[in-house]
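Here is the promised in-class demo. Please do not try to memorize the tokens; focus on the logic of going from shape to residues.
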């Protein structure tokens, strides 16, 4: 009896030990392999979307839009966040530039010596590890500073690092100075032109063959003529050609022009109203700015904005010479198209605002890094005239369904401006236009103003996100800035 009981208990224990092998298994937890499963929560001010404001995280919205997602390769999403960093002084129409020494430059109207335009240099901001790492100082301090101009402008040559400072003096012409040593010293001012009304200038360079300098320089202005007037320098800014029309003769596009951009093949591009006076066009020069051809953008469906900065069709050129255009539509939303043949033909227009309730947008800016990698900056009203800064990046522009990642660079409750219809008018430090660039690591930078904080100049960027140059990989993280840096 005792032996039988022992055998029975042994059998029961043996069966129990094998029950995990032969019994019914618990169902393993399902692993969600969504590419949007990051190791941290997506910020409330970051959106992943497709053209037309389709939320990429909403499967139903994606299906309803008949989108076949391919979130692989260059189109892979990255955890992304945005912020801004104050430069310590006020600004107006803040143009900017980046040197290969990782210095950022911004204009500051009236804050230089003797009331001149300051050139603010922010060092150690790029790739910084702690907010205390960076500092911003004026580096324009010649013996005889040029008097303050009504439209300050700074540009950094992408091929030579030459910093060009342009001062426009309305009826008195324009003067040019440059620095080849990060602003430590400056050339004597040279007259750029003196015989047309000066307004709304824009300057760029390109490796077009020049006799006395590695790059050719072109600037265009609104000379109160039927089209912008442009001038060229083949010796690094020392002398300038007579002004010539910045559009085909008889074009009648109006004199205002968005920023000029030079491409790696030596071409120059700028955006403007079309020759017919409607729609937007990109104008191209293949001979150093002496003649220009018109290349209409695909605005049939978007229409064009009817606001203060209606002429702002912006253009950016990537490292392979592809042309990326941005404009504001009739609905005051930002639109984008690209050309892979120097502007001769264009992709379909894409509305690039994120899937959030924006009333309208303004002050467009665009820049590009590697092949098909683009960054867009614009102001947007989230309701009640709360104007925020939005930075949208694109790492696979030429794919069938490119993914857009948009960040709001200012936190909720920290608007950049609260003026009625700010994005549609000249307001505060924004003036007429803003500016953008991409550093050597592939991080986009946007120069603008925090009007609510005293019109202080700010540089906005992504603290985390994908590089817009080289391999598609995560940028080194940067600490968030915000109001504490104003």
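The designed amino acids, position by position:
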């Amino acid at each position: 009896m005792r032996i039988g009981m022992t055998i029975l208990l042994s059998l029961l224990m043996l069966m129990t030990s094998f029950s995990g092998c032969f019994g019914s298994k618990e169902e393993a937890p399902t692993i969600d392999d969504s590419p949007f499963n990051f190791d941290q929560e997506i910020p409330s001010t970051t959106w992943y979307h497709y053209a037309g404001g389709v939320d990429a995280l909403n499967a139903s919205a994606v299906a309803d839009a008949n989108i076949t997602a391919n979130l692989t390769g260059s189109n892979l999403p990255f955890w992304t966040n945005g912020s801004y960093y104050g430069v310590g002084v006020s600004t107006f129409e803040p143009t900017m530039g980046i040197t290969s020494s990782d210095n950022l430059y911004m204009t500051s109207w009236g804050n230089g010596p003797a009331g001149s335009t300051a050139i603010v240099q922010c060092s150690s901001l790029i790739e910084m590890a702690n907010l205390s790492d960076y500092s911003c100082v004026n580096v324009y301090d010649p013996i005889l500073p040029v008097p303050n101009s009504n439209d300050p402008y700074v540009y950094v040559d992408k091929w030579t690092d030459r910093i060009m400072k342009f001062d426009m003096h309305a009826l008195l012409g324009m003067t040019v100075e440059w620095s080849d040593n990060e602003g430590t010293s400056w050339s004597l001012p040279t007259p750029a032109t003196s015989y047309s009304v000066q307004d709304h200038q824009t300057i760029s360079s390109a490796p077009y063959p020049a006799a006395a300098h590695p790059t050719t320089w072109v600037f265009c202005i609104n000379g109160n003529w039927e089209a912008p007037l442009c001038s060229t320098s083949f010796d690094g800014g020392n002398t300038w050609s007579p002004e010539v029309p910045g559009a085909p003769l008889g074009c009648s596009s109006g004199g205002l022009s968005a920023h000029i951009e030079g491409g790696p093949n030596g071409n120059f591009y700028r955006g403007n109203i079309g020759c017919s006076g409607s729609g937007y066009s990109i104008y191209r020069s293949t001979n150093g700015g002496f003649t220009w051809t018109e290349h209409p953008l695909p605005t049939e469906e978007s229409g064009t904005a009817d606001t203060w900065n209606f002429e702002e069709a912006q253009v950016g050129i990537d490292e392979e010479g592809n042309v990326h255009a941005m404009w504001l539509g009739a609905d005051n939303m930002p639109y984008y198209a690209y050309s892979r043949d120097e502007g001769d033909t264009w992709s379909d227009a894409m509305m690039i605002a994120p899937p959030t309730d924006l009333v309208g947008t303004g002050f467009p800016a665009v820049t590009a890094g590697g092949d098909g990698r683009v960054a867009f900056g614009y102001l947007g009203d989230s309701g009640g005239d709360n104007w925020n800064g939005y930075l949208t990046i694109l790492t696979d522009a030429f794919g069938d369904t490119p993914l857009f990642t948009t960040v709001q660079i200012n936190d909720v409750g920290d608007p950049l401006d609260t003026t009625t219809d700010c994005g549609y008018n000249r307001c505060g430090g924004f003036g007429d236009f803003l500016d953008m660039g991409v550093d050597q690591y592939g991080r986009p930078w946007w120069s603008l103003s925090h009007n609510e904080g005293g019109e202080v100049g700010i540089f906005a960027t992504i603290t985390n996100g994908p590089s817009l140059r080289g391999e598609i990989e995560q940028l080194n993280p940067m600490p968030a800035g915000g109001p504490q840096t104003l």
